[in-house]
Design goal:
The protein is α+β, with helices and mostly antiparallel strands. The chain contains 6 helices and 18 strands. Helix 2 runs antiparallel to helix 3.
Length: 323
């Protein structure tokens, strides 16, 4: 079993190494599920097989020692050398391959359940949600806000809240579901969303927009105009670069499902959001690959609602809740 366990750890190390080096995309949910199942198997084997065997061997050792002492005592030998306590402890000691499998099961299982059904951490990798979220923000996502979903397959089994305009959501990227994206919900099922000449309109009503102070983007070393936008009941800040053209470059538009619901022009685009789907955009409007480029987010792709920055090692002042 020690050889099998060593091979399993070698395979895990190779998988994580290839993932880290970018040779393939990893599926952390699937990895956690497999680790939970494997460590559970070891834990059950330890509980019902290996530990009882060690305890039985320890009892047999004690009985043999006692029988030996009784036999020697009948021969008039009362002072017997040897202390079997150390030998007994060694028999009861859990071997390394069980300590690093069965011993880890409670921790891995707790992480798997918490990550699957309660909260999941994410790291912001790009500037598409500036100024709300910046590169390096470590955030938490509420996994049950939009319903309880089975891990790995992401199948919803219990309904909860529906996404609302203005929610910041994490979802599986429709073009490549192995990747997770984060954007803001702009359009709900049935909405008509227009983004014409940098003005967002939902169902014919322009979204409130108020100019604010300039924002300095430390990554691009540029200033950008900041605006306060109100979607639904949520007020949040966005960036708009008035020097950038308002249209979506035709070569950048994916051939996404239900693309016929959208029309593009030199001033921008208009989309009718289909049932069971959502239209999302980044707060950094001119630096965000979002629904304008690759289409709608199906409800089945939802991961959860982002709600708090729990750490940013470059700027701890960013820690806190956000809209």
């Amino acid at each position: 079993m020690s050889l099998i366990t060593g091979l399993l750890y070698a395979a895990l190390a190779a998988y994580l190494g290839g993932w880290y080096l970018g040779h393939w995309h990893g599926n952390f949910s699937l990895l956690l599920f497999i680790l939970t199942v494997v460590t559970l198997a070891y834990w059950l084997a330890e509980k019902f097989k290996f530990r009882p065997d060690r305890e039985a061997a320890a009892v047999q050792l004690v009985e043999q020692d006692q029988a030996r002492r009784v036999s020697l005592a009948t021969q008039g030998i009362g002072d017997v050398d040897g202390n079997i306590g150390i030998a007994r402890d060694r028999l009861l000691m859990q071997p390394w391959w069980l300590d690093w499998t069965a011993g880890l099961f409670p921790v891995i299982c707790a992480v798997f359940l918490m990550r699957s059904f309660l909260f999941e951490p994410f790291k912001i990798p790009s500037g598409s949600m500036i100024p709300t979220l910046v590169v390096g923000d470590l955030i938490l996502v509420n996994k049950f806000h939009y319903g309880i979903r089975l891990p790995v397959i992401n199948q919803k089994v219990i309904d909860n809240n529906d996404p609302q305009r203005g929610d910041v959501i994490v979802f599986r990227y429709p073009v490549n579901p192995d990747l997770d994206y984060i954007k803001r919900v702009v359009g709900l099922p049935g909405d008509t969303v227009a983004y014409i000449n940098k003005q967002l309109t939902v169902n014919g009503q322009p979204v409130e927009l108020e100019a604010g102070s300039e924002y300095y983007d430390a990554d691009s070393l540029r200033y950008a105009q900041q605006y306060s936008e109100k979607l639904g009941n949520l007020q949040h800040n966005i960036l708009i670069d008035r020097d950038r053209p308002p249209f979506v470059p035709p070569q950048a538009i994916e051939d996404f499902p239900m693309k016929e619901n959208c029309s593009y022009s030199g001033e921008g685009m208009v989309c009718q959001v289909p049932a069971g789907h959502y239209f999302v955009m980044g707060d950094n409007r001119d630096n965000s690959q979002d629904s304008r480029y690759w289409g709608f987010v199906p409800d089945r792709n939802l991961v959860g609602k982002a709600f708090v920055i729990w750490m940013n090692f470059s700027d701890v002042k960013r820690i806190g809740f956000f809209h």
